[in-house]
Structure formats: C-alpha cells, structure tokens
C-alpha cells in the first residue's frame, strides 16, 4: 500500500486531502472495517466505531467532516481478522525480540513516534496490556489500532508499512499459543507487593505515552499476583512511577535490549559530537548505496542541506574522518575548485584499543583511537 500523502503538504492541504477519505476504500476492498480517528489524541472520531464494517467505512469517508480525518482506525479481533503485537518501544532490537517470541510476519508497521506494530491473523486473542514481565509489549486482539498512512500533525510524520502491505493480510500467520502465555508476576510475600509492582512500573514507564496507559498496564500485571493489591493501591504505584518518569529521575527504567549497530554509532558520536552524528545520518540517507560521493561544505551550506555554517559542516566532516566513519578517497582542491571525494565506512572494533577501518575497496587497516 502506498500512502496518499505528500511529505511537504501543509496542514490545510492535508485536511482538504482527507487521509481517511483517500484510503478507507482500499481497506474496505481488503475486507477490513475502518473508521476515522483523531490521531493526536488516539481517539475514534465517530460514534459506533465498534460496529464498523467495510460498507460503513466507505460511508464515513463520503461525509466531508469525517473524511477529512488524518487517521484510520481498525477494529481489531474478529471484525478485521487481525491481532496486533504493539511494540511500545523504539529500536530494531525490540522488533527482533518480538518477532522471535511471536513468530515472523509479513507485515511490520512503524508508528508516527517510531515504535512498531506486528500484524498476525486473529485466533481468539483478547486485549492484554503489558502481559509480559519486563517487556514493553501489548497484545491487541480487541479494541482498535491506528493504521497507515495515518498522519500525526504534532509529530510531522505518518504511520507506514516498513515491511509488507495490505496485500499481505491474506497471508498472515497466527501467533503460536505458547508465545502468549503471560509471565505471571513473581510470587511475593505480603508487604513486598507494593515495592515489586512499583519497581515494575518504573521499568515500564519509559515505554508508556501517558499515566493512564501505565495505570492500565499495572492493573494487568497486578492481577497476576497470587494475592493482588487493591486497584487503588496499584494505581498509586503507577502514579508514583510516572511522577519519577516525568521529572527525569526514573533510573530504574533505563535497561536496554542488545545494542544495534545504529545504537553503537550513535553512542560513538552523539554525546560529544552531535553535529558529526547528524552529518553521518544525512550522508547515509543520501549515499548509502554509493561507492563514492563528493562532499562540498560551502555548497551544502548555501543550499541549506544541512542548514549549518560551512565551518560546522567542515568540522563534522573532519570528526567523521578522524573516527573512521568517513574515508577520504581524494582530497578537496582549492586550486582546481574541486570538492573532496569520500566513501562511508563504519568502524569495526578489533581487539582492545584498536579500530579496523574498512574502505569501499575492501582493503582495511588498523588504527589506534585518538
């Protein structure tokens, strides 16, 4: 499915286009019941959404006010035949972990906030919020979800299929039953339940969009205790954890999955040389598949791509060269008015204290870090 959305459309243009109106028919053709949603608040924009059908989805799209909605909602479970694994955290490592647990699927979606959704064929699953200990994952076998190409105006980006499309819905696998066996809360003595739930809430808070989501998650996990806390006690734990998260003092919620190569590159540059990291990301976008490319700081600055002064671009380039993220194939020449020729090369660590620089030609050499 190709989202019907120009990346640089103004807010007024997007309203006139009607994201919902332009895409509802394609979902209806696939037999999926959709309805208009308010994407910013993640709320249905129409009453009776639970009774949505492909026919009603088309009808709502023909009504100007509803058709102008920026989002498409899907009724999960039996009406659509879909179950969603909502990976409520950013990073490829979380997606890989979810696919390993729930099985491969031909459809993976990136949300507007950079998180992920995995689609499977519905097989009786219900709605479970944070049922797995220590994992920012929800199982949506009922309720609703927001589907591509819904647009978040506050974030300036859209939901998108990163793998597969609507044509793959007919080929979705089911989730293995044993993958859905919730990890029950560990057995704890009376007097320890509050502390256990609070610590769990702290680890989950950084993956929740708001305090209400965290309260919902804590209620689900609290129910797994042999002797659950009262709902008010569970809510107090959630609100306390959210207060620490909101103040930036949640040090219990910083556990990360295995780092990806992108994470390591970010750690190498972002803390002390953020401009170099920004330039590296831009060069990857423009030249990832090229063996060589020119880099002209003055022309880049004049074109506003990136919109930095020439000297800042030169400094960022030099940092990438010094740290082995960029290889200079031919130096710039003022006399000949020629820009330098470069290639991308992520450094690969070999042993302790050395970096192996791998160039596009395949040749490599070791260097000690500066």
UniProtKB/TrEMBL annotation:
SUPFAM superfamilies: Prim-pol domain (SSF56747)
Any single Pfam family the record assigns to this protein: PriCT_1
Lineage: superkingdom: Bacteria
Coiled coil: none
Domain DNA primase/polymerase bifunctional N-terminal: 24-179
Name of protein: Bifunctional DNA primase/polymerase
Originating species: Paracoccus saliphilus
């Amino acid at each position: 499915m190709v989202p019907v959305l120009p990346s640089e459309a103004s807010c007024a243009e997007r309203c006139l286009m009607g994201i919902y109106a332009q895409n509802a028919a394609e979902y209806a053709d696939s037999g999926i019941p959709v309805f208009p949603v308010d994407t910013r608040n993640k709320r249905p924009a129409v009453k009776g959404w639970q009774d949505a059908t492909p026919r009603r989805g088309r009808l709502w799209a023909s009504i100007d006010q509803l058709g102008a909605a920026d989002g498409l909602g899907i009724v999960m479970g039996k009406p659509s035949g879909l179950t969603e694994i909502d990976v409520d955290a950013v990073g490829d490592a979380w997606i890989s972990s979810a696919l390993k647990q729930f099985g491969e699927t031909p459809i993976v979606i990136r949300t507007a906030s950079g998180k992920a959704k995995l689609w499977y064929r519905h097989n009786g699953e219900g709605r479970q919020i944070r049922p797995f200990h220590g994992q920012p994952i929800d199982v949506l076998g009922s309720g609703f979800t927001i589907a591509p190409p819904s647009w978040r105006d506050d974030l300036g980006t859209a939901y998108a299929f990163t793998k597969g499309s609507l044509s793959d819905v007919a080929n979705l696998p089911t989730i293995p039953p044993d993958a859905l066996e919730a990890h029950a809360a560990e057995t704890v003595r009376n007097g320890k339940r509050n502390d256990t739930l609070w610590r769990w809430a702290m680890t989950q808070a950084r993956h929740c969009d708001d305090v209400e989501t965290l309260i919902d998650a804590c209620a689900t996990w609290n129910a797994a205790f042999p002797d659950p806390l009262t709902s008010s006690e569970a809510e107090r734990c959630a609100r306390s954890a959210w207060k620490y998260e909101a103040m930036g003092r949640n040090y219990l919620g910083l556990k990360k999955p295995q780092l990806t190569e992108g994470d390591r590159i970010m750690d190498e540059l972002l803390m002390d040389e953020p401009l170099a990291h920004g330039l590296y990301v831009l060069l990857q976008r423009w030249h990832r598949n090229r063996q060589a490319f020119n880099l002209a700081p003055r022309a880049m600055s004049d074109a506003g791509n990136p919109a930095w002064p020439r000297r800042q671009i030169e400094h960022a380039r030099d940092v990438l060269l010094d740290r082995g993220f960029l290889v200079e194939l031919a130096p710039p020449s003022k006399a000949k008015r020629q820009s330098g020729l470069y290639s991308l090369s992520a450094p690969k660590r070999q042993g302790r204290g050395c970096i192996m620089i791998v160039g596009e030609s395949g040749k490599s050499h070791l260097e000690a870090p500066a």
